[in-house]
Sequence to fold (430 residues):
Amino acid sequence: MAQALTRPMRALIWSILVAVVPWAILLGLFLAHTSVFWMFAMRDPRSAVLIGAVYVGATIYYVLAFRENDWEQTKSGIEGAFIVSAVLLTAVALHWSSIRPWHLMTILWLIAYYGPLLLIPILFRREENLTDRPSEGGRLNAAWRRWLVLRGVIYLGLTVFAFLFAPVMAARWAWPIDALEVRMFLGQPATFAWAGVNVLRGHVLWRRYRLHLIYVAILGLAQFSGLVLIRTAYHWGSLLGVLLPLLFAEWIITPVLFLSGHKTALASRQGIAAARTPRVAEGPGWDPYVRYGVSLLGATYLAIGILGFIPIEALNPVQPGGVGATYLLRHIAVNWLHNIVHILIGVTGLMAVRRAGGTRLWGNMTGVVLLLLFLTGLGQAVILDFPIDQSLLGLVPLNSAGHTFHFATGVIALILGRTPGAPDRRSPEL
Fold:
């Protein structure tokens, strides 16, 4: 009997769809107009396909996930959303100077990517712990297990190498492209590497990889179509000009062979059909997961507060705007006072999980404070005609990345504080 998706997980998937569907449409239909609607201008429409394919694939993936209503099939997509968020946010942070900081798309994009990095671990952990019943269904045969592992190792190596040497890769790309676009694209093969990791972890149910490989095939079709149909200059004689079509062809061939020829397909269908039920799993109470969420949020703020004090130019470069601050992780404007505030938020969050009723109080107070900070800073930015960087009350430096981080984490903190069943006593689980 397959485990149906819970209401919170379905809500998370809906929120992801709300974000990715417009981006899929914009990057899929208006390839030559990224200078108008996107957070940075792309020099070649093929780059819009390179990045936009992930949103097309995600849209179809999560629609199918709703239809199947099976956690075993959905979880790889949730893991993939986390990996893609981490890769893309890192890429944007490294190239923040190339981003239009106050463009509406930048604000929406940052909010959509900050949120999942914190919400996904909380909801994923709850979904995994709903039942201790072993999953049922057909299993991967030995040949497919070996291929997925080998494929994962190859894509992991390619992803790490290309991310570290993105400027070199961009200079040798088959069309004019920037290092930022190369790094954002790498979120896609990074999810393929994770599929190999999952096989090594012992996750060998056939249906766990079914939707994932449909997603891979959609990416391959979108990318290959972009190479063939777009008529801008393409350097077929270069090494990457030859490798990219072969790479995208593999993205199509592997899923087709996997989905059409696997001998356990019929056996797995029984498990898939059992998952299609109007009943939505409710699961146990929220107490341990609220505390886990507060711990995660507190640890995040404590970590970035400490990182902000590290005087390494490559990590936290000096802010060129002249308000006496640095860019935390090349991204968020901070100074010593801002770092101390982050550390205080983190420490109080970690302390809150140790006290009776602490998570509810901390979530409500922190959420309100962060949202008020967001609104105040945004109001000041409007008055000052959206400067690249601003100084709130002459004390704390802020920029659009900081504002959206405060907004996303403030909403999550408020959700944790308002979630029914927040703990009112200490639990032996922590």
